[in-house]
Design brief:
Largest sheet: 16 strands, mixed
Structural class: alpha+beta
Oligomer: single chain
Number of helices: 15
CATH topology of one domain: Ribosomal Protein S5, domain 2
CATH architecture of one domain: 2-Layer Sandwich
Number of strands: 27
Helix content: 25-40%
Shape: globular
Strand content: 25-35%
Length: 691
Amino acid sequence: MAEKNTKNAEDLAGKMREVSVAEFFEKNKHLLGYENPTKSLLTIVKEGVDNSLDACDEAGILPNIKVSIKEIEARVMYDILDSKGNDLGEFMFDKKPVLKIKDRFLKLKNTEKDTGSTDYIFEVSGKEYKIRETKNEDGDKNYQLFIDEERAKMTRSPLGKFKITMEDNGPGVMANKVPLAFGKMLYGSKFHRLRQSRGTQGIGISGVIMYSQITTGKSTKITSATEKEIATVELRVDVSKNSAQIISEDVVKNKDGKTGLKIELEAEGRYVEKGASVTEFLKQTAIANPHAKMTYEGPNGKLVFDRVTNQVPKQPQEILPHPYGVELGILTRMAMSTGSKSVSGFLNNDFSKVGDVAIKEILKISKIEAAAKPGELTHEDIERLHRAMQMVKLQSPETDVLSPMGEKLIEEGLKKEVKAEFFVAVTRPPAVYRGNPFQVEVGIAYGGELQPEGAAQMVRFANKVPLLYHGGDCATSESIVETDWKRYGFNQTGKNVPTGPIIFLVHFASVWVPYTSEGKQAIADYPEIVKEIKLALQEAGRRISVYVKKKGMVKEHQKTSLLYQRYLDEVIKALELITNLDKDDDKMLRKNLQIMAWSKTQEAYNFITSNYLHVKNSEETTMVEHHGYKLLVSEKGGVVGIAVNSTHKDTGVEDEAMKILSSQKGKYKKGMVYYCDMSKDPPEIEERKIW
């Protein structure tokens, strides 16, 4: 008979030990955003850039941020695409070839070697996949994929080790604080402050260093320059103690006074330039932070995101907790640790928007003496106090703790990075959820070079930080799909994202963002938040619907004009038969009918020429006559201008305007319409808005 393996309480107690925060996240790094190689590389850059922007903004410095990613050791990896560009799977060669088709790993069936090449053959469901390996003159290996002897498209996607450098011109970090700020989890200056900021938890940058040492075993080098000193520290995270392990440290005087921070590390990752990538993150960060200049050097070249404003954003103020947002357990902790000697002082000093009248009402409802000591309150006392705080009507929290982007900068940010024809921005008044002030902003870009078909693109921000993952779990996405976009002129099927050439930008600003996870990629769907996002979207929808309807009006007027011109000769012939007109009368009749037609469509044509005709290319232009109107046309046939003004009825003036426009051949800019203003002396050519 087998002996039972039983253990008593003493045995179990002997195995118990404390788990440090760093050790927990070492085993659960996916909670911090390190779910896969692609997202891991993005998370590293995100944490570094967020810290730099926060530091520069708080110090009142216009940010100059540099990010560099260099491939130092690569395992060959390719994305496999079909003829339409659809993703079929991946191929990787490390120690042996690995082929994954539609999430299924195929088994290597055979290897055939020939002079100068090797074929790796896979087979599944009767279909043969052949990977051909060749070497160039430098000895580098190249790969081609054949599916049933037909060559498929493969795009190289580096998977391996990268050296990542992030540098800013911020105020720097004091030398004695560098090991704590970068080598200790849950250490920082933002967690205990109710103030809008990008970072809050104090685990972002230390998580970056920990991920680096997990994947490469190497330490991180940090160079911090304050006004007085420059500290160069090489460190690791001691996960068992949740503290920094300093490898080397050097502190010298800062002779030139330039400040900033530089982080250098190595980490494993996968580099892509489509979808949720480093480049997309930086592009969206540039939209939300138009005051920042960012320079990026990646494996495929250099990108510069210039600032469009020299105005540093208004710095949000710090506030005390609001009674409506404090839960019972937190209230208990606050009462035990407060420096106030009485409950009335506790309510007045430790909370926002609690005045003398509100204090008296809270104490009356809770039946607690004003002079009672907070630390001596019983559990029942605190329960009554908490209940009374929720019952009394209080003012909403201050809203100067928020730093919204503002409608002007939202439009400028979108125009800088998005090639659209029309932009709308809406900033809602501040609101409150659970005692926390928040503000919602929405921007919409429409038309232009955006994709005319397919689902609209969503760009989500929380405290000016792009959210690139978990869109389906976010209050922002929920609000967009629940808005009825048909009433604003867009195509939408059921509870889905509308389709068409649209980009939705939604920014959520708050002192405390209710993220759904530590990875900070989605906002919880509190009813108050969803309501405010919907209201902002609806207001933006109403504004842009005016534009969409006018575009439709222009098209209808154009159809009417073309139809009229088509039958103009027939109308004149009929009138000649009826009225016996002579040739001179015939000319006058034609001119008068054209003037009549113009008066009926003048509004539409003025609308086109003042806003919505533009230069599609920079080729030289020529004059053509189209249904009675002389147009400026590019060599490829695109209409780039039309002479229209208050004296349009005067054919001589029109011809003169056309001569002036045509004389400017080759000088027209892409994306502009040109209008010849004959009311000026001499006539002037004006640039108008793009379509």
